[in-house]
Specification:
Order of helices and strands: HHHEEHEHEHEEEEHEHEHEEEH
InterPro entries: LysR_HTH_N, LysR_subst-bd, WH-like_DNA-bd_sf, WH_DNA-bd_sf
Radius of gyration: 25 Å
Structural class: alpha/beta
Number of helices: 10
Pfam family, one: HTH_1
Organism: Xaviernesmea oryzae
CATH class of the largest domain: Alpha Beta
Distance between the termini: 53 Å
Family: Belongs to the LysR transcriptional regulatory family.
Number of domains: 3
Oligomer: single chain
CATH topology of the largest domain: D-Maltodextrin-Binding Protein, domain 2
Protein name: HTH-type transcriptional regulator TtuA
Strand content: 15-25%
Largest sheet: 6 strands, mixed
CATH superfamily of the largest domain: Periplasmic binding protein-like II
CATH architecture of the largest domain: 3-Layer(aba) Sandwich
């Protein structure tokens, strides 16, 4: 069995047509058919049921498809790790991050790493936590900075760096803006501007639960994936927002921030460093230590 046979199998499993599958693989149909036949002979099972009119996956073929996808994903990870090592990985870090990492932790860690090693380089990209998990699995980044919880996986480690609270962000002319601080019971009855639920389902559920405990259903007036966009919608008067305390440097005209007191214990924004524990790059270890130090100093 080789990787090309597996690729042929997966293409045929998707299109269920030998002519289209062989064309997609850039092979003559007889050669393609022989590749599938050899794979079936090696596995000693029929992967496809063939008739003169149609091709279907057998039960064995359907089971093999999931494993075949995992095999090719592992091959791609191995390629990425090898290429990364060949490109002097010890002096370059590929990092993905959520916007909350930019308030303090990531800039402070990068500054510290560059002071220790001016030759170090960075490939940086913004990505959601779920996207980071996929990038790590594919070997396309060295580490991510995302929001836990994440699904436990053998090839993924998650270490919490910090836990932040939220401020209430109000339109400047909102009645609650006249108070020095606000409680969540006062906020719960107001329409809110939030992030999309799929972006942070655990935090979204915590906000919904706090509203319910205060006797109100969660009212979402608008959603935006970036904090700056959310605060701009608050300034337009669409609703109130919640912003991490560490983001107080973001100042949007027409809004005011107020502390939430008493503060709900369940309402926290955690930031974690995500990485593949098999990655033994010295630069990765140094980066994790720099991130932990930055989180402590924040």
């Amino acid at each position: 069995m080789d990787f090309n046979q597996i690729r042929c199998f997966l293409v045929l499993a998707d299109v269920l047509h030998f002519g289209r599958a062989s064309k997609a693989m850039g092979m003559a149909q007889p050669h393609f058919s022989r590749a599938i036949g050899r794979l079936e002979d090696e596995l000693k099972v029929r992967l496809f049921a063939r008739t003169s009119r149609r091709v279907e996956l057998t039960a064995a073929g359907a089971a093999f498809r999931e494993e075949a996808r995992a095999i090719l994903a592992a091959e791609e990870r191995a390629r990425q790790f090898a290429r990364h090592a060949a490109l002097n990985a010890s002096s370059r870090l590929r990092i993905a991050f959520v916007s909350a990492a930019l308030y303090h932790v990531l800039p402070a860690a990068i500054r510290s790493l560059r002071e220790a090693d001016p030759a170090i380089g960075f490939d940086l990209r913004e990505a959601t936590t779920n996207e980071q998990v996929e990038l790590i699995a594919a070997g396309r980044i060295d580490l991510g900075l995302g929001h836990p919880p994440v699904e436990e996986q053998p090839r993924l480690s998650a270490e919490t760096l910090s836990r932040d609270r939220f401020d209430a962000v109000l339109p400047a002319d909102h009645p609650l803006a006249r108070q020095p601080d606000v409680d969540f019971a006062g906020l719960a009855g107001e329409p809110m501007v939030l992030f999309p639920e799929e972006q942070g389902p655990a935090l979204y559920a915590a906000i919904r639960d706090q509203c319910r405990l205060a006797g109100h259903p969660l009212q979402v007036a608008a959603t935006a994936s970036r904090l700056h966009s959310q605060l701009s919608l608050v300034s337009a008067g669409l609703g109130i927002g919640l912003a991490p305390v560490q983001s107080r440097s973001i100042d949007i005209s027409g809004t005011v921030r107020r502390r939430i007191e008493p503060y709900p214990a369940s309402l926290t924004l955690s930031l974690a460093v995500l990485y593949d524990p098999r990655n033994r790059s010295p630069a990765l270890r140094k980066a994790i230590e720099a991130l932990k130090a930055a989180a402590l100093s924040g």
